[in-house]
Amino acid sequence: MEVNMSKRKTINNVNLPKVSIPEPSASQKLPYNGQVIADSGRFSFSFVCFDRTEKLFNLGSNEPDKTVSGKWFIDLMDCLKSISGMTVNEAVCSMHDLHRIDDWKKTNMKQPLKGYEQQEYYQFRINKSKGRVIGILIDSVFYVVWLDPHHNLTNSVGYGGANIYKPALSLYEEREKQIAEQAAEIKKLKADLDEAYNLLGEQLDKNAGGKHIKVLNGKIQRHENVI
C-alpha cells in the first residue's frame, strides 16, 4: 500500500519526502520502524533490539560517572543523522563503512543465537575514532543491537584488546541503587541498635539486684522478680 503524497507538503520551508508503507512479508519477524520506510530506500533506525547488558557494550567507562561521555553521544547522533540521508549502497561507500560481519571468529563475541528469520549482523563506523554501531539490517531498517564506543567488537589497531567496564547506570537506576543501599543500611543500623539495647538490658539486669530490667524503644523499664 502506498501513501499518496505526490504533492509534497511544506512546513516552514522544509520539504517532506514521499513515503510508502510496505506490505509485511511472511518471513518478517522484526517490526518496521514506525511501519514507514522512505520509498527511496534510505536508512531508518529502530532500537527495539537494543541491548546494553552485554559486558563488551554496556556503555561503561573510566569517566568520573563511570558512563560513556555525553560528548560521545553527540557524535553518535550526528552519525545517525548523516546515515539517515543515505541509501544502503551510499552508506557502504561512505566514511561510515557499513559492512556485514561475516566471520565471528575474528571478533571478541560469540555468534549471537538465532532469534530472527533474517539475522545478518552489520556494523558501521561513527567516525574515525569514536567506535561503531552494530545491528541487524532488514530492508533499509537498521535494528541497533549494540553500541561500541571502545572498539570492543574486534581488536582494532591502536586500541588493543577489549576494554571491560562496570555497566553504566541511568539516573533512574542510580537513584534506585542508592535507595536500596540506604534501605539496607537502615535495616542494619536498626538491628545493631536492637542488639545494643538487649546488651544494655542484660548488663543493667545483672547490676539491679532483684530487679528485672528491660530496654524497650530506648527506655529503661524495671520489674520486680516474681518467685
Strand order of the largest sheet: 5-9-8-7-6
**Class inferred from helices and paired strands:** alpha+beta
Strand and helix order: EEEEEHHEEEEHEE
Shape: elongated
Structural notes for this entry:
- The structure is a single chain.
- With 227 residues, the protein is α+β, with helices and mostly antiparallel strands.
- A five-stranded mixed β-sheet has the order 5-9-8-7-6, covered by helices on one side.
- A hairpin with a 2-residue loop joins strand 1 and strand 2.
- It contains three helices and eleven strands, in the order βββββααββββαββ.
- About 9% of the residues have low confidence.
Task: Itemize the secondary structure elements and their pairings.
Elements: E1 10-11, E2 14-15, E3 19-20, E4 37-38, E5 44-46, H1 70-84, H2 88-93, E6 99-100, E7 121-125, E8 132-138, E9 141-148, H3 171-208, E10 211-216, E11 219-224
Parallel strand pairs: 5-9
Antiparallel strand pairs: 1-2, 3-4, 6-7, 7-8, 8-9, 10-11
What characteristics describe this protein?
single chain, 5-stranded mixed sheet, alpha+beta, two-stranded antiparallel sheet, 227 residues
Brief summary of the model shown:
By secondary structure, the protein is an alpha+beta fold. 26% of the residues lie in helices and 20% in strands. The termini are far apart.
